[in-house]
């Protein structure tokens, strides 16, 4: 029979080990430092989305700078779909040359500014 304190410690082990997990950004395939970790709703919350993935903060900002919530909900609701988009491919090629903790503010695309 296991004591209550030992049970608590055993039940906490998975939680503690999750903090030390290495996260890879599904957009740019680079390691995500803790300071650059952002949760992204694959389908925006405003469109009923519940599933999130961790991305680099800069990748997350770039997604929202390029696409509307409707586009994200209907067409670009997976990491693979986002990676295949030509504008994101250009961004991914550029960001892969930067350090993992690199961050720069993203600008809204002209197409989104017009709408």
UniProtKB/TrEMBL annotation:
GO molecular function, one term: hydrolase activity
Domain of life: Bacteria
Record keywords: Hydrolase
PANTHER family xrefs: HNH DOMAIN-CONTAINING PROTEIN (PTHR37827:SF1), TUDOR DOMAIN-CONTAINING PROTEIN (PTHR37827)
This protein's name: Alpha/beta hydrolase
Organism: Polynucleobacter asymbioticus
